[in-house]
Amino acid sequence: MQVRRMAVLLTILGLVALVAGCGSKPAPPADARPVDKTAQTEPVSIPEIKPESTPRPAVNYLAPEIQATDVKTGKPVRLADLRGHVVMLNFWATWCGPCRKEMPEMEKLQQQMGDKLKIVALGWTPTEPAAMLSEFADKLGVTFPVAYDGGKAGKVYVISALPTSFFLDKEGVIRQKWVGPMDLEMMKQAVAKAEGD
User: Fold this and answer.
1) Are 166 and 63 within 8 A, CB to CB?
2) Quick check: bond before 29 cis, omega within 30?
3) SS3 (DSSP) at 174
4) Cβ–Cβ under 8 Å, residues 128 and 96
5) pTM here?
6) Most buried among 44, 118, 121, 130, using CB within 10 Å?
7) Rg (CA), the chain
């Protein structure tokens, strides 16, 4: 008796499922075309987003712009004006011992590289006035621009240790960041990397 009831119940459930369409494929819409399984689909063109297009103080990104003043000439210093050249952007301070040792190496690099390289030494400390930076640069005899912006770029570039240098390619993209002092050979290698060598 029990088995008979179970069989009747299963039969009823099967009929309900069949009527409801459970387990069967839905009928295609009336306007549907047959699918050609041999046809190849066209690749979808997704626009490539290059990280270089967004300024950010990181390798492979466009370097954020600086608005500084050359402490010797009073002329504006902007990275956009240096496009077409490899750039070494160096953050430093007069009280920084490693910076004092690095500056003569930077001058040697500038003399050896000539117009192929543009060096900008940007004073990091907002409390060091432009006159102090200029006097320091004169004592060392540096020929590249020493710039001052009141410490604004140091915040944008998130400088936490001195010296810190960024090497930009000819399009203004950061190709290397170096925290700490560099010697002449290290600088040459960084410039070569920025040149794409």
Assistant:
1) yes
2) no
3) strand
4) no
5) 0.73
6) 121
7) 33
- State both tokens at 21: 């369409």
Domain boundaries, the chain: 52-195
Number of neighbours of residue 113 by Cβ within 10 angstroms: 17
Q: Are strands 76-77 and 68-70 parallel, antiparallel or unpaired?
A: antiparallel
Q: Which residues pair with 179 in a beta bridge?
A: 164
What is the rounded distance in angstroms from the CA atom of residue 178 to the CA atom of residue 143?
22
CATH code for the structural domain at 52-195:
3.40.30.10
**Tokens 């960024």 — which residue?**
166
Q: Are 174 and 166 in contact (CB under 8 A)?
A: yes
Burial of 171 (0-12, 13-18, 19+ CB in 10 A): exposed
- Which residues, other chains included, contact 91 with Cβ-Cβ below 8 Å and sequence gap of 6+? 122, 124, 153, 154, 157, 159, 162, 163, 164, 165
pLDDT by position in tens, the chain (length 197): 555 555 555 555 444 443 344 444 444 444 444 444 444 444 444 444 455 567 999 999 999 999 999 999 999 999 999 999 999 999 999 999 999 999 999 999 999 999 999 999 999 999 999 999 999 999 999 999 999 999 999 999 999 999 999 999 999 999 999 999 999 999 999 999 999 86
The two tokens of residue 146 are: 């020493």
Do residues 194 and 168 lie in contact, with contact meaning Cβ atoms separated by under 8 Å? yes
